[in-house]
Design brief:
- The protein has 492 residues and is of the alpha/beta class.
- The chain has 20 helices and twelve strands.
- The longest helix has 25 residues.
- About 2% of the residues have low confidence.
- Keywords: Coiled coil, DNA-binding, Phosphoprotein, Transcription, Transcription regulation.
Amino acid sequence: MWNVLLVEDESFVRRSLKQLIRWEDMGFTIAGEAGDGQEALEMMRTRQPDLVIADIIMPVMDGIELMKRARAEGMESSFVVLTCMNEFEYARQALELGASGYLLKLSMNVKSLEEALSKAKKELTRNMQARSQVVSPPFQRLYRDTWQSLFGGAAEGGEADIDAFAGIDNRYESVWIGSFLHGAERFSLNDVQRFIPTTPGSGTVMHSYTHFGQTSVFVWNPAAIGPRQKPDESLPWPAAFSRIADRRDMRSAWGRVLRALDTAWYDGRTGIIPIDTFEPGAVEPDSFTWRTEREWIHSFEQRRLDEFRERLQDGWNAVERRRLPMAAVKETAIRIDRILSRIAGLNGTAEEELAACTGHRQLVRLLLSNAERYAERWASHAHPITGHPEIDKALGHIHRHSHEDVTLKAVAALVAMDEAYFSGLFKKKTGVTLIHYVQQVRVNRAKGLLEQTELAVGEVGERVGFPNTNYFIKIFKRWTGQTPSEYRSAVR
């Protein structure tokens, strides 16, 4: 909403102006009235209206002089002047001084007033955008560093502090913050300004900061908080709004807004989420320890894939129970996806796809689906993983020939090592005996065939290298806890 000051010495004209249209539908709110230019100038100094609709001929100080004095004092308010037909020369002077337009009082109607306001609104928006762009660089550094301090990565030089940032003028004394969880959908300040419940105020600047599928909007020096939206409109995404906060409280205000938005992330809440019950704060130190992540990755590297799947699922269930911040959850998911895909020799899901998720369960499904794809690739392709040349050569042979008769004697001969010595070294480097390793490779390949084909159980066993159906069923159940048929039914 833009603030409007009505300046007219005839009260019935001011009354007519107020009643002629629904001002809030046009994006304006009437913030004050004055009967002459001197009174209006004093009100402008304290209220800083965005738009002044002023009569030209008034007692004490006329509209032209009001414009001159306001410009001389550096006020940025836009003007629309009211004039009669025989005062048109004054209207021309007002336009030369930068007035947005003029209205003829004798022929003023709904259409002419709405056209004047629409033009003024476009001008106000352009001016605010230009002003915001000029001062944007230090603010964007502040947003980035504050984000890092909130979500585990301390900003360079310590916690982000607005007073430590050169280039941010002290005149920006207050801020309003709103965050929207829009995912992959397009977000534009021009599109969402109607949902932002702040009255901009003269000199206001507005910025946005987008990260991980949410955009936060910052309105610096807002004049007031007004209606959030028209009764017949609803927000297109979950959102959380702060109160107007002191500049030094920007970090805590943003933290509360983002923590409130986490409610939508976990519970699927929509609309505007109250922030009163949420406290800001950095991610808990033990929220995602490298040790935990390393255990997941180690299981994957060692091809203990059932263990890996179980650990990964348990980990993400724990995240939901603890309701960790959405930003930290997404950051970890992106990192895990990137590491697993590299190990498997595949390109990971684009960061944008994970970052654009708008719910925790959606993210988990995508991450686990990717992990399964990487696991299948990792189980069916040979990759050196031990750093020992002979053992890595043996592993490559096993993965290429697991459907054939793979024996300890044959593999030891392949790498020119004593059978007993090779057996002990293999277990030391992989954690399992050679026969168990072969069984795991075959079972993992069998899982893929059971999930993706209609082949009979016996044929699946034969394809992956088991000599008969009974032995296949026995070994499959040993490693999975299910028969092949039970497994197929469970995953479909």
